Amino acid sequence: MIVEKLLLHVLIVLAPVLSYSFLFEHRKIGRSPYFLGLLYGSAASLCMYFAYYDSSLYWDLRYVPVVLSIFYGGPISGIITIVALMLTRTAMGGETLYLAYIVAVISCAVPFLIYNCFWKSTPKKRVYLSIITGSWPALVQLIILLIYLYFNEDFLGFDQKLVLYIVVFGTIQILAVVFAAVLNESVIERNLMKDEIRRSEKQHTLGELAASIAHEVRNPLTVVKGFLQLMEGEDERHKHYYPLILSELGRAENIISDYLNFAKPEFKKIETFPLPLLVMELSILLNPYALKEGISLTHTIESDAVLTTDRNQLKQALINILKNAVEATPKEGRVSIKLMEEDDSVKIIVRDTGKGMTKEQLARVGSLFFSTKEQGTGLGTMVSTRIIESMGGRVDYTSKLGKGTKVSVTLPLTHLLSRETV
Ligand code: ADP
Ligand code: MG
């Protein structure tokens, strides 16, 4: 009997979260603490109305809505629920009314006390906290009941049934809290996801606007740079400023083209070319830079693959990866490029003996604006990944902190790119 009644209470306890998440999802009222307080308050009152009465005690799940209301609705919602609970209990009267008041005060104090700590926890921890706090009233009830029994043994007539009731009551109470807390967490997650989608839509628009502005800025910059180069030879008085002005302008231009590449990698000129030649070119291009940093740059070629794609874009993607490898490597370190074939794809593997990355850095590499460098833009790896992915390929990073990093660029020999004999 008690089980049926308590299962009905589980339904009552779940009703508020179901109604505010599904029925009032798009309305402001669905998030109002007053409304939530009323919903949970009604649930608590209904639990009491349909309570199972035995051994001079009311067996119900009234404290589950209270705990949920405090945690998920906030203090205002919690107070409204407690007031509703107290009013209903007073109306019901009975001999154990003063006991009910004591249990209510002790039970409600805990969720209020840990409210701040609750919202600083992760979603999983929040569910555990709800379970512990949700079981707390049952424990309080049990302790007070035992104390009561101790002093008024003749009043209740202690029997085994009571122990069974307490076990059933405790179990169902915990189950109800678990269901409700998990449901609440999924509602929170869904709302966060919706916000995230809205935010990324906004970012997308902003990104497109920024790309068009970057494009417009690049043209005047090129003109200014041209004229400054012309003036460099004539203006004797400010001669020593020019190299700095030009190098800073060059940096600005680089940042803009990196950004434009990221925003929209365009394949302008599709050519068919042997990959070994490109790898050799890269090695020659970056060798002086590596030497200046005291790093040896080597290459190994184990494939004669020929690709058809935008050669300059691919070169840019690999330069970004190689530059990062050189920048991460200390003096006397090594950076190597290896070209090899595997099944239907070619692999360009860039290894370095540099500082490597932590797990967190590894997880973020390739995402926009992630940089650990003082002058870094956090665009290079993003641009490279975008270019390679738009060629149907893949970039994989593996890294060990303090040991080095391995970047594998895998390009299919079929999609977009075709294989011919050299
Ligand atoms: P930036 O070079 O401007 O910082 P990138 O997008 O090129 O931007 O790189 C992002 C970050 O990824 C770097 O700041 C660095 O922390 C990390 N990174 C990339 N490649 C390597 C590498 N080979 N070794 C260690 N860290 C790397
Ligand atoms: Mg970089």
Write structural notes for this entry.
The chain is an alpha+beta fold. The protein folds into 3 domains: 2-197, no CATH class; 207-263; 270-421, Heat Shock Protein 90, CATH 3.30.565. It is built from 14 helices and 9 strands. It is elongated. Mean pLDDT is 85; it is low at 415-422. It binds adenosine-5'-diphosphate (ADP) and magnesium ion (MG). Adenosine-5'-diphosphate binds next to helix 12 and helix 14. This is histidine kinase. Residues 212-415 form the Histidine kinase domain. It is a multi-pass membrane protein.
What is the helix fraction of residues, given as a range?
Answer: 55-70%
Distance between the termini: 84 Å
Structurally, how many domains make up the residues?
A: 3
Going by helix content, strand content and strand pairing, the class is: alpha+beta
Number of helices: 14
Q: Element order, helices and strands? A: HHEEHHHHHHHHEHEEHEEHHEE
Radius of gyration: 34 Å
EC number: 2.7.13.3
Domain Histidine kinase: 212-415
Subcellular location: Cell membrane
Pfam family, one: HATPase_c
